[in-house]
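Apologies for my clumsy wording, but can you show me some protein sequence, whichever is easiest, together with the matching structure tokens, please?
=====
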Amino acid sequence: MPIMTPDQIADGMDGRLRETAAGRREALLPSPCIQNHAAFLSPAADGLHCLWFGGSLEGKSDISIHRATLADDAWEGGEAVTDDPERSEQNPVEFDAPDGRRLLIHTAQPGGNQDACVVRMRELGKTPEDLALPNGSFVRGPVHVRADGAWLLPLFRCVSRPGQKWTGSHDTAALAISEDSGASWREVDVPGSIGCVHMTLVPLGGARWAAFFRRRPADFVFRTDSEDDGESWSEPQPTDVPNNNSSISVIRLRDGRIAMACNPTNAAEHPEARRESLYDELGEADDRPNATGGCNPTWGVPRAPMTLCFSTDEGRSFPDRVTVEDGPGACLSNNSVDGNNREMSYPSLIEADDGTLHLAYTYHRRAIKHLALSPDWAGFKDVT
């Protein structure tokens, strides 16, 4: 299939779901922005929602959270729902709280300084509040509600070093727990988690949970366990799924399997060119040296193919894999205009009541693509 240009992608961003194969429908979500990234799907009574961040370039202060709703086989909306003129607002998480509030949780950072990020929470249309979490805290995975009503918010911490620039080399994972409906939070560290980010929770039943991680060294997806409802965690260990230092989405299906959407490739498989950092294009003046010690963050490993991986052993291994979309995955630049970025990344995966898998992901940094995959889609024949 020919690679689409940014203009061709823009022309297709009408939000309409079109059948592209038996059991498979696709859409490019509407957005007024040149850059669109970090989709988050959220099922609700009024339809399927998708949130993402959009603007001109990740890290710029014009980056805001956008939101669209799927209705009658077409995505509607795509407008900004946040607007901080001083900070780049990223990584949205929508949460329908048990008390009836629909909450938006997201990050807000000055430029490329992720270690100065704050986490904000708001009801849509209302004034946000900065959560009492350490600067540099980031979110990406969904909020879960524990059996006792506590809210579980997975975190990763962008840790700075005195006098040195943040590079991701000391990032760690933690779980934030609120027992008063988000008014206050306490944190549970994940031991031995340097380099483990984008913590994603999966309930295993009772007080048992697993969590999965993107990895800064671009080696493998890692996994940890909790046997006490998130109050303590084992040291993360590698699974058999390669990771390229890009986001993953992991859910438990109704049939008990664990499903992961990801780019199953890593730095060892791609020894070619690398990015200096995540924010090369910002051109920010910063004379501080890069942070030393910790892990070795690797940026620029191709972000493709987009793949669904399935596990029958609670996520310890994922032998069954289906390629959803392939391509070069080039991500040496975050530019959404020149056509050099061809990543298919940052998936968000949910299962509908009828068994349809909904998958949304970044498409060439120009658009958010949504796929609706029915249980009879041909790609599932070998794994079901």
Residues 233 and 345 are 28 Å apart (CA to CA). Helices lie at 6-11.
